[in-house]
Amino acid sequence: MKIGILTSGGDCPGINATIRGVGRTAILHYNMEVVGIRKGFSGLLENDYTIMDEVALSGLLYKGGTILGTSREKPFRKRLFSDEDLPRKLKQHYDDLGLDCLVAIGGNGTMKTAAKMRALGINVVGIPKTIDNDIWGTEVTFGFDTAVATATECIDRLHTTAESHRRVMVVEVMGHKAGWIALHSGMAGGAHVILIPELGYNPDKVIEAINRRMNKGKLHSIVVVAEGVKSLGGEKERPAFYLSKYIEEHSDLVCRETVLGHIQRGGSPTAADRNLATLLGGYATELISNRIFGVMVAVVNGQMTHLPLEEVAGKLKTVREDNPLVIQGKKLGISFGTED
Ligand code: F6P
């Protein structure tokens, strides 16, 4: 068999380990040929690819980013200024390459595209990746553990300077519309307030929580805010800046804000992410060898499994109110900026 691999959407730690997991299993165990398609779906549209052999697949386990490059190209998106039939082009180039299957490593957008490709008759297997951990159908995505570890280390560092200056540090973390990174890094980093989009928040409750700490003699506070949290009042500014300004305007507290940004996405994957990526890559290749297509590989109850792409496409996995970390956080007196 001949398979293509592409990586699409925002990069994350562990993609290269997945490429290695797919590629080496394909070549060494199933005797398949492997083609790497550059820059996500753009590469397939432009016929930009490279043949991957064992040498090309070496040294990838610990490397962040994606050696194939990525893009946010959505070939099925309606275009205002062009009537070029990109889906047809995609299918044509897939056929020209003589592929038996395309492995699409990506996030929610990629799974949507993969489902549409499947409907066009392209054999495709999706592998979920994102630091946001928001892909429906899988318990965890690689990249998340690394992002949480990085964010936690940053929060640790902010504690000491916050303490020295008796300040409130408002730290904004990534996560798109979900609060997974904020919840996990906030809890691991000992944040005093954690704000996630799923729960909503009231800025006055944040001030109350910080003042409660002040009254007990705890003179510094760490507020972790997910980027997807709304800047209340419809402000265009980032939630960390909105909140920081609001706190200073409505209290005597002194705030500083930090937006961690792409620091969370770069660098080497953790051991857990490397192993998850390797397992998912191997499992995806096994499915292909059994001619099981049109699915996304996933972790359910800690086991590798797969789900139909059309079942996954367009859904989002968000944090539930009964998440054990939310429940335990409240027991510890951590504020989520809500009424209770
Ligand atoms: O989906 C991953 C992610 O890092 C989100 O957390 C973030 O909102 C977005 O990508 C940033 O995208 P870009 O790198 O295109 O600015």
From TrEMBL:
Residues where ATP binds: 10, 72-73, 107-110
NCBIfam families to which the protein is assigned, alphabetical: PRK03202.1
Residues covered by the Phosphofructokinase domain: 2-288
Pathway(s) of this molecule: Carbohydrate degradation; glycolysis; D-glyceraldehyde 3-phosphate and glycerone phosphate from D-glucose: step 3/4
Family label: Belongs to the phosphofructokinase type A (PFKA) family. Mixed-substrate PFK group III subfamily.
Predominant place of localization: cytoplasm
Entry cofactors: Mg(2+)
E.C. designation(s): 2.7.1.11
PROSITE patterns, alphabetized: PHOSPHOFRUCTOKINASE (PS00433)
Catalytic residues (UniProt): 132 (proton acceptor)
Name of the protein described by the UniProt record: ATP-dependent 6-phosphofructokinase
Ligand binding (Mg(2+)): 108
Subcellular localization: Cytoplasm
Its biological purpose: Catalyzes the phosphorylation of D-fructose 6-phosphate to fructose 1,6-bisphosphate by ATP, the first committing step of glycolysis.
Catalytic activity: beta-D-fructose 6-phosphate + ATP = beta-D-fructose 1,6-bisphosphate + ADP + H(+)
Residues reported to bind substrate: 130-132, 167, 174-176, 227, 256, 262-265
PANTHER family registered for this protein in UniProt: ATP-DEPENDENT 6-PHOSPHOFRUCTOKINASE 3, PHOSPHOFRUCTOKINASE
InterPro entries assigned: ATP_PFK, ATP_PFK_prok-type, Phosphofructokinase_CS, Phosphofructokinase_dom, Phosphofructokinase_III, PKF_sf
Site (Important for substrate specificity): 109
HAMAP family for this protein: Phosphofructokinase_III (MF_01976)
Oligomeric form and interacting partners: Homodimer or homotetramer.
Keyword set, alphabetical order: ATP-binding, Cytoplasm, Glycolysis, Kinase, Magnesium, Metal-binding, Nucleotide-binding, Transferase
